[in-house]
Amino acid sequence: MTRKYLIAGNWKLNAGGAKGIELATAVAAATKGAQAEVVVAPPFTVLAAIANDLEGTHVGVAGQNLYPKDSGAFTGEISAPMLLEAGAKWVILGHSERRQYFGETDASVKDKVVAALAANLCPIACIGETLAEREAGKTLEVCFRQLDAFSAELAKRPGYGVVAYEPVWAIGTGKVATQEQAQEVHAAIRQRLAAVSAELASKTRILYGGSVKADNAAGLLGSADIDGALVGGASLDAAGFAAIVKAAPAT
Ligand code: PEP
Predict the structure, then answer these.
(1) What is the pLDDT of residue 176?
(2) Does residue 80 lie in a domain region?
(3) 166 is catalytic
(4) Distance between CA 23 and CA 16 in Å, rounded?
(5) Containing structural domain, residue 202
């Protein structure tokens, strides 16, 4: 099964206005002709403008979160249909920062995955262990618990949704997981998906995230079960991000 590499840039709480428009344009130019699929996840304030600018290009747009109701009295929230209408085709869900700072749980992440799929918005669902959990030997236990919360939903459309393995201790810290550490967990995640369905396991793209940069991307992306990257800090620089995109092996 050949899975197309996917490189997604998570801009987090950055580049929410004119800077975001500039960055998106620069990313599209710098990644033109890339073999890998390219996605950027800007803040909501600039998402529609960027989606409009990128229309017809190879770069897709993702939301960084959604609220799992279509509409109603939920002040401050944004729904899956709204993201779709704004031009997003993707949404990052269950990022560790949302779990850590905004009280997201396995159950709420599952609800969001359901809402995304119902709206035809492709979920990039994040899982990953903290340093304390890794040191306690609980890496797989934690990842499987988080994955199991939504894997049956992904199985309803095998290959549509994406899983991102992001060890929390490697996010924004400069501490990247070694190729071996990452591949070991990715292989275990794929095996866990196989218990749900063989088709789900073979078609699901599993991204690695955690301090991915131009100089470590090729090694990580060369691993058998790593199908792309979710990039935070390094996605704010178009040239650096493009170098990661270009590090993906040909498929
Ligand atoms: C992320 O936020 O998803 C991430 C992986 O961040 P960074 O690349 O900065 O570690």
Answers:
(1) 87
(2) yes
(3) yes
(4) 10
(5) 6-246
